[in-house]
Amino acid sequence: MDNKRKPLLDIATLVERPMVKIDGELQELVSPEELSILASQRLASDGRRLNELMTSDKLDEDGDQELEKLLVRISDTIMEPVPKMVRAKLSGMQRLEIIQAFTALLLRKKAGSAAAMINSLIPAIAVPKATGETISPGSSGSTAATRDTGSPKRR
Q1: Is 77 among the domain residues?
Q2: Backbone phi, psi, residue 23, to 5°
Q3: What DSSP letter does each residue of the chain carry, written as one string?
Q4: What average pLDDT does range 144-152 have in this prediction?
Q5: Is residue 105 part of a domain?
């Protein structure tokens, strides 16, 4: 394979799980790559609903209960490798922090994949070689005459 060519995607089958520290102990979370399509879809759907409830101006008792159930369901899916006894100690805000960290991880991964695909599809932009000349600080670097603007009256 030509060393100058870049792959469209770089996929590793060895999964590296992200970790969080809970009560001083490192705990593994599920890696986004481990999620099935169905689990990923469910997390996305639950996440949208969680966001709706979190941004709601008025949250009644039913909404509050739904919010609590969603926090537990989403965080338990993400923290599946974490022992249940450890998960049970977490408050709603701590679970939300873990969900937010996992979401940031997903976004970073998606952004990295998108950037890699764009870089492989778009040829590198040729950068002109320096000639040794410097451009003065207020200059555009062009020697072409500038266009007159404003009133045609003489000043």
Answers
A1: yes
A2: 50, 40
A3: --TT---S----SS----EEEETTEEEE---GGGS-HHHHHHHHHHHHHHHHHHT-S---HHHHHHHHHHHHHHHHHHTTTS-HHHHHT--HHHHHHHHHHHHHHHHHHHHHHHHHHHHHHSPPPPPPPP-S----TT--S--SPPPP-S-SS--
A4: 57
A5: yes
pLDDT digits (tens, 9 = 90+) for 86-124: 999 999 999 999 999 999 988 776 665 556 556 656 655
Number of compact structural domains in the chain = 1
Q: Which residues contact 68 (CB under 8 A, 6 or more apart)?
A: 92
Domain that holds residue 44: 19-121
The contacts of residue 91 (CB under 8 Å, 6+ apart) are none
pTM value surpassing 0.85: no
The predicted pLDDT at position 7 comes to 79
Per-residue pLDDT reduced to its tens digit, 8-63: 777 878 888 999 999 999 999 999 888 899 999 999 999 999 999 999 988 899 99
Residue 24 placed within a domain: yes
Asked whether residue 83 is assigned to any structural domain, the reply reads yes
